[in-house]
Amino acid sequence: MAKANQPKPLVGQELLDKVKQLDHLSKEEKARECGYYTLTKNGVERVNMMKFLNALIDAEGIELDSTSNGQGRGGRSASYRISVQSNHNLLIGSAYTKKMGLKPGDEFEITLGRKHIHLKQLGVDEEE
């Protein structure tokens, strides 16, 4: 908890601007200067790097969680392009499955064409 003499941690654009001003400092010093520290009972200062880094991620608008709670500017939008990974897998990200309303455990039938892959969801009427 913040003490009366301890500043409230910066967030959003204010945090990003302050971090840019402090580019000459270490990341721990930046976190402290932005208010991400606490004082222990013995008066020892502890920098909270995890909260600081999470606040930076939120301020940049990067969405790491699979659930969105409506805070922040949101994450990257779907590009509708994927690449074959080094292990030869194709990964369809959560942005697409969320947009389609898919849930864990939903099953698909795969049909391969010459240069396309067709997915047909099993257990769903053709009308959908």
Shape: elongated
Helix amount? 25-40%
Helices and strands: which structural class? Answer: alpha+beta
Beta percentage is 5-15%
Provide structural commentary:
InterPro entries: AbrB-like, SpoVT-AbrB_dom. Keywords: DNA-binding. It comes from Hyella patelloides LEGE 07179. By secondary structure, the chain is α+β, with helices and mostly antiparallel strands. The chain has four helices and four strands. Strand 1 and strand 2 form a beta hairpin. It is elongated, with a radius of gyration of 22 Å. The chain starts with 11 loop residues before the first helix and ends in a 7-residue tail after the last strand.
Blueprint (SSEs and pairs):
Elements: H1 12-21, H2 27-33, E1 37-39, E2 45-47, H3 49-60, H4 94-99, E3 108-112, E4 117-121
Antiparallel strand pairs: 1-2, 3-4
GO molecular function: DNA-binding transcription repressor activity; transcription cis-regulatory region binding
Organism: Hyella patelloides LEGE 07179
InterPro entries: AbrB-like, SpoVT-AbrB_dom
Concise account of the structure shown:
Keywords: DNA-binding. GO terms for molecular function: DNA-binding transcription repressor activity; transcription cis-regulatory region binding. This protein has 128 residues and is of the alpha+beta class.
